[in-house]
Design goal:
With 577 residues, the chain is of the alpha+beta class. Helix 1 crosses helix 10 (458-468), helix 2 (46-65) packs antiparallel against helix 6 (169-189) and helix 2 crosses helix 10 (458-468). It is globular, with a radius of gyration of 30 Å. 41% of the residues are buried.
C-alpha cells in the first residue's frame, strides 16, 4: 500500500484544539486521525480509520482463535426485550430512547445481551448445539452526561461484545477462561501496558467480573494493586479486611455537651481538652461519622434514605456506594428540615429510624464517640451490638494508599489510574431466566443455559494506545496498529523526490505499507519532519543530499535512533524486525 501526502485527505494542526483535555485527544486531532462531529461523537479520517481497522483485525483474529463466530445486530432495537430483562428502566438516563412515527419505543443499544439471548433461543434448542461463542464489533450508544476526553468518554463508540452460552457452570468457567487469555493476547499485541483487576458487575449483573485497565495518568478508573502479592481491584470492588469482634465490657453510654463542633477535628479537639470518658488521646479514627444519602431507584418515584456509619478519619466515596446499591443513583441528603430526628452534625446510630449500614471496620463490640441525636451533644462508649445494631455492612469509604491488602497478610495497597479497555463477566443465568433460554438435555429434560459477556472498547483502545505511545512531538504507534510501516521523506529540492518515489515503490513491492511525503517543494523540510513525528509511523526514511551517493537516513520513531544506511539495505532493515 502506498499513500501520498499530496493526495491524502489529511490536515495536521500546529496548535492543540481548545476542547482537548488529554494527550490522546490533542494528538489524534492534531495529527489528522479524527475530527469532532458532535459532543461525544467523532469522525474517523483515513489515517484514524486505518488504525481502528487494524485494532479490530487483531480482535477478530483472537476471537476466531477461541471459536468465536461473528454476527451483526442492528443498533436500533425495540423496547420489548429490554423491558423484559428489566434494563429499560435500570439504565435510567444513560441510554438514548426514541419513538417511531407510530409511537413504538426504541433505544440505541448500549449492549446486546437481550438480542443475543433471543437469537440463540430462536436457533438452538438441543444440548448438542452447545457450547457456542458469538460476537460482533458494532457501534454502541450511551447518553453521557458530560462527554469528555475525546474517544475515551463518548456517546457513540465502537465495541466488540461477545457472549458465551454453556450448559453448565463448569462450561461457563471454561469459556470465561478462554476469553481472559484471548484478551491478554489482544492487549499484548496492541502494545498496551495493562492490569487485570477484580471489578463490580454493575448493570450487567452476574457473579464474577474483571476489568482490563490500561495504565494512564488520565484514566478515569482508579484501582489498587498490592506490592507484596498479585492482588489488583477496581476501587469499587476493594474489600476491607474486617477486624475481629472486640471482647470485654465497656462503660455505659454517656452523653456530653459538645457545642460548636461542626467538624470531626473540632470534636476530637474538644474531647481531648475535656478528657471525655477519661481520655485525652482521642483521634478521628475513634469517632463514628454518620452520613445520610438518598437512593433513587429506576422507576420508583419515592427516594430511599440510607445512613452510613464510617470511622471519622475516612470520607464516604459515593462512587463506591453506587457500586454497592446499583442500579440506584446516590446523592447526599440535604433536606434535614423534613427529618428533624436526623440532627445534622450530631447524628448517632442509637435509636435511628432509617436503614443503617456501617463500614466493615465498625466491628461488634467496638466503642465509639459519635452523635447523640441532639443539637450540640455527642456520646461516648457507644458500642456496636449493645447500643446499636446495624442492618449490615457496606464498602463505602474511600480507599487509601497504605490500606492493608485484603488478599495477603503483609501487603499494603497502592493507588493507580487506568483506562478501561476490556471487561469480562460471568453473567450466569440472569438473561436466560428472563427469556427462558433452555436446551433439551440428554435426558430429555430442559437445561437452563448459563452465559458470559465479554467486551472490548475498540475505539477506546485506539485512544489508550495513543495515551501510552506518545511524546512531546507526537504519536508513536506500535507497528501492530500503525497506519503504515514507514514514511519516506524527501529533504531537498534536487533529485530527492524522484529517488524517494522510487524507494517508496520498492518498499511497497516488499510488502510494506508506505506514506510518501510528495508534497510540493515549497513545504519546508522542517514541516515535513514535524508532521512525520506528529503522525507517528514506526520508521521514517529521510532522502537527503546523500541519496545521490546511495545513502539515506533511517529513523526509529520510538527511540529516536538515527543511522545512515545504503539505499540497497533499507528493505532488508525494515522487513527484518
Amino acid at each position: 500500500m502506498l499513500l501520498r501526502m499530496s493526495t491524502l485527505f489529511l490536515r495536521t494542526l500546529r496548535e492543540d484544539p481548545a476542547e482537548a483535555e488529554v494527550p490522546s485527544h490533542r494528538l489524534l486531532v492534531r495529527a489528522g486521525y479524527v475530527r469532532r462531529a458532535a459532543p461525544g461523537g467523532y469522525t474517523w479520517l483515513p489515517l484514524g480509520k486505518m488504525v481502528l481497522d487494524r485494532v479490530a483485525a487483531i480482535v477478530h483474529e483472537e476471537m476466531r482463535a477461541i471459536g468465536g463466530q461473528e454476527v451483526h445486530f442492528p443498533a436500533l432495537l425495540p423496547r420489548d426485550a429490554y423491558e423484559k430483562s428489566g434494563r429499560w428502566t435500570a439504565y435510567g438516563d444513560d441510554i438514548f430512547r426514541l419513538k417511531d412515527r407510530r409511537g413504538a419505543e426504541y433505544l440505541l443499544a448500549p449492549t446486546h445481551e437481550e438480542l443475543f439471548t433471543l437469537l440463540v433461543q430462536d436457533l438452538f434448542g438441543s444440548y448438542r448445539d452447545f457450547p457456542v461463542i458469538l460476537y460482533q464489533i458494532q457501534t454502541k450508544f450511551r447518553d453521557e452526561a458530560r462527554p469528555r476526553a475525546g474517544l475515551l468518554r463518548g456517546r457513540e463508540f465502537l465495541m466488540k461484545d461477545a457472549y458465551s452460552f454453556d450448559l453448565t457452570d463448569a462450561g461457563l468457567e471454561e469459556s470465561y477462561a478462554k476469553h481472559r487469555v484471548a484478551y491478554q493476547r489482544i492487549f499484548e499485541r496492541l502494545g498496551l501496558d495493562f492490569t487485570i483487576v477484580s471489578a463490580q458487575s454493575g448493570a450487567m449483573g452476574g457473579s464474577g467480573s474483571e476489568e482490563f485497565l490500561a495504565a494512564a495518568e488520565v484514566g478515569e478508573d482508579t484501582f489498587v494493586g498490592c506490592a507484596a502479592c498479585s492482588y489488583a481491584a477496581n476501587t469499587e470492588a476493594v474489600t476491607t479486611p474486617a477486624p475481629s469482634p472486640v471482647d470485654g465490657e465497656h462503660p455505659a453510654l454517656e452523653v456530653h455537651d459538645t457545642p460548636e463542633t461542626p467538624t470531626i477535628q473540632s470534636l476530637v479537639d474538644l474531647a481531648n481538652a475535656r478528657g471525655l470518658a477519661g481520655r485525652t488521646d482521642w483521634t478521628a479514627a475513634d469517632t463514628l461519622k454518620n452520613v445520610v444519602v438518598q437512593l433513587s431507584r429506576p422507576g420508583v418515584a419515592e427516594k430511599e434514605l440510607l445512613v452510613i456509619g464510617v470511622p471519622g478519619d475516612r470520607e464516604v466515596d459515593l462512587k463506591r456506594v453506587e457500586a454497592q446499591v446499583h442500579p440506584a443513583a446516590v446523592a447526599m441528603f440535604e433536606d434535614f428540615a423534613s427529618r428533624p430526628d436526623l440532627v445534622r452534625g450530631y447524628i448517632g446510630p442509637q435509636k435511628l429510624d432509617a436503614r443503617y449500614l456501617v463500614d466493615p471496620r465498625v466491628a461488634a463490640g467496638s466503642a465509639w464517640l459519635t452523635g447523640a441525636n441532639e443539637p450540640g451533644k455527642h456520646a461516648t462508649n457507644v458500642v456496636a451490638g449493645r447500643d446499636f445494631t446495624p442492618d449490615g455492612t457496606i464498602e463505602a469509604v474511600e480507599v487509601r494508599a497504605g490500606d492493608p491488602c485484603p488478599n495477603c497478610a503483609d501487603g499494603t495497597l497502592e493507588i493507580r489510574r487506568g483506562i478501561e479497555i476490556g471487561h469480562i463477566f460471568q453473567l450466569g443465568r440472569r438473561f436466560a431466566d428472563a427469556f427462558g433460554l433452555d436446551a433439551l438435555g440428554q435426558d430429555g429434560k430442559p437445561v437452563r443455559i448459563t452465559m458470559g459477556s465479554y467486551g472490548v472498547g475498540v475505539s477506546r483502545a485506539v485512544a489508550a494506545i495513543a495515551e501510552q505511545h506518545c511524546d512531546e512531538r507526537g504519536l508513536v504507534w506500535p507497528k501492530s496498529v500503525a497506519p503504515f510501516d514507514v514514511q519516506v521523506i524527501p529533504a531537498g529540492k534536487g533529485a530527492q523526490l524522484e529517488i524517494a518515489t522510487e524507494l517508496a515503490s520498492t518498499l511497497v513491492a516488499a510488502g510494506l505499507r508506505v506514506l510518501l511525503d510528495d508534497r510540493p517543494a515549497k513545504v519546508s523540510t522542517g514541516v515535513r519532519f514535524a508532521d512525520a513525528d506528529l503522525i507517528g509511523a514506526p520508521h521514517s526514511v529521510v532522502v537527503g543530499r546523500g541519496a545521490t551517493d546511495g545513502v539515506v537516513e533511517l529513523r526509529v520513531r520510538a527511540t529516536d535512533e538515527r543511522s545512515e544506511v545504503p539505499i540497497s539495505d533499507v528493505v532488508s532493515l525494515l522487513t527484518s524486525d
